[in-house]
Automatic annotation (TrEMBL):
<dbReference type="InterPro" id="IPR029441">
    <property type="entry name" value="Cass2"/>
</dbReference>
<protein>
    <submittedName>
        <fullName>AraC family transcriptional regulator</fullName>
    </submittedName>
</protein>
<keyword id="KW-0804">Transcription</keyword>
<dbReference type="Pfam" id="PF14526">
    <property type="entry name" value="Cass2"/>
</dbReference>
<dbReference type="InterPro" id="IPR011256">
    <property type="entry name" value="Reg_factor_effector_dom_sf"/>
</dbReference>
<dbReference type="InterPro" id="IPR010499">
    <property type="entry name" value="AraC_E-bd"/>
</dbReference>
<dbReference type="InterPro" id="IPR018060">
    <property type="entry name" value="HTH_AraC"/>
</dbReference>
<dbReference type="Pfam" id="PF12833">
    <property type="entry name" value="HTH_18"/>
</dbReference>
<feature type="domain" description="HTH araC/xylS-type">
    <location>
        <begin position="8"/>
        <end position="106"/>
    </location>
</feature>
<dbReference type="InterPro" id="IPR009057">
    <property type="entry name" value="Homeodomain-like_sf"/>
</dbReference>
<dbReference type="InterPro" id="IPR050959">
    <property type="entry name" value="MarA-like"/>
</dbReference>
<keyword id="KW-0238">DNA-binding</keyword>
<keyword id="KW-0805">Transcription regulation</keyword>
C-alpha cells in the first residue's frame, strides 16, 4: 500500500469514528507512521488538527440530520460525542452561527466541512535540494520545554519561546557554546508522549565537550541517517514552506519514512531575515516497509 492509500485509510478510519469514537493512535497506525508525525502531516496537508477535523465533520453531519431528518437535539448531541445539550449547542453555534433549535427552518445557513479525500496532484516541478548523511551520536546543550499538540498549541508557543531566547541573551550564549558537528543554533523537536499528545522542543547548540552550564540541559541524539533539506529565504516563511513541501511532496514520492527520532532545524549565524538566508531541516529517516 502506498503513501496516498495509507493516508486515505487513516482518514476513512476517522470518518467511521465520527459516531463510534476514535483514537489518534489508531489513525496513525493505519498510516504506518508515529502519532507525532501523523498529527504533523495531517496539519500540514489540511491546515487543521485531527481534533479540529473530527469536530467540524461531526457538527456538519449533526446539522444535516437536524435540518433534513427531524432528529432530536438531545439524540444528535449524544450521537456525535457531546455529553450535554448545552455543550453541543455552544459548539454548534460556533460553527454554524445559529443554535441547533433553529436549523430546521434555515438549512441554507449551515457551514459544511466535506469529507477529506486524498487526491494526487502534479507537484514537485520546483527542485528540492536534499542530501543523505549518516551521523554518529552527538550531544546538544540548551533549554527545553514541553508543549501540547492539541489544537496545534505548539505552533503558537514555539515562536514565543524563540522570542524569549533572543531577548534574554540565551541565543548568544548558545552561539558561544557551539563547538559540535552541527554549526548553528538548533530547534530540536521530538515526540514525548503519544497518549498525552505532547512534544519536547529544544533551542540548543551542538556541544561536544563534557561541561554543561548549570542552567542548561544536555541531550544526546542517537546515531541516524538524516535527510537534510536546504532552505533558502527569510524566516519564518521559508522554513514553514519547506516543511509543507517535505510532507506533501518529498515523502509521498520517495522510499523513506520519518524514523520517529528528534528532528532538527539548523539556523546558521547570519541575519535570518535576509532574502537569501540559508538554513536546513534534518529529519531522521528509515526505508518504507
Amino acid at each position: 500500500m502506498g503513501w496516498t492509500e495509507e493516508l486515505q485509510a487513516a482518514i476513512d478510519y476517522l470518518e467511521n469514528g465520527l459516531t463510534k469514537g476514535y483514537s489518534v493512535e489508531e489513525a496513525a497506525k493505519r498510516a504506518h507512521i508515529s502519532v507525532f508525525h501523523f498529527q504533523r502531516l495531517f496539519s500540514v496537508l489540511t491546515g487543521m488538527s485531527v481534533g479540529d477535523y473530527v469536530r467540524k465533520r461531526r457538527l456538519t453531519l449533526a446539522g444535516q440530520e437536524l435540518a433534513f431528518h427531524n432528529a432530536r437535539v438531545l439524540d444528535t448531541a449524544l450521537k456525535y460525542g457531546y455529553e450535554t445539550p448545552e455543550a453541543f449547542a455552544k459548539a454548534f453555534k460556533r460553527q454554524h452561527g445559529l443554535p441547533p433549535s433553529e436549523v430546521k427552518g434555515a438549512p441554507a445557513g449551515l457551514t459544511v466541512y466535506n469529507r477529506l479525500v486524498i487526491s494526487v496532484l502534479l507537484k514537485g516541478a520546483d527542485p528540492m535540494k536534499v542530501r543523505m548523511e549518516e551521523k554518529e551520536a552527538f550531544s546538544i546543550v540548551g533549554v527545553k520545554r514541553t508543549f501540547s499538540c492539541e489544537n496545534n498549541e505548539q505552533q503558537r508557543e514555539i515562536p514565543k519561546m524563540w522570542a524569549e531566547v533572543h531577548q534574554n541573551g540565551m541565543n548568544d550564549e548558545l552561539v558561544s557554546l557551539n563547538n559540535g558537528v552541527v554549526k548553528g543554533v538548533l530547534g530540536v523537536c521530538r515526540a514525548l508522549d503519544a497518549q498525552a499528545k505532547t512534544i519536547e522542543y529544544w533551542i540548543a547548540a551542538a556541544h561536544d565537550t563534557a561541561d554543561t552550564p548549570k542552567h542548561l540541559e544536555r541531550l544526546t541524539l542517537a546515531p541516524a541517517t538524516y535527510a537534510i533539506f536546504e532552505v533558502h529565504g527569510p524566516m519564518p516563511h521559508a522554513m514553514q514552506d519547506m516543511w509543507n513541501r517535505i510532507y506533501s511532496e518529498w515523502f509521498p514520492s520517495n522510499p523513506y519514512r520519518p524514523a520517529g527520532a528528534a528532528e532538527l532545524e539548523v539556523y546558521p549565524l547570519e541575519d535570518a531575515m535576509k532574502e537569501d538566508y540559508y538554513s536546513e531541516i534534518w529529519i531522521p529517516i528509515v526505508p518504507k516497509a
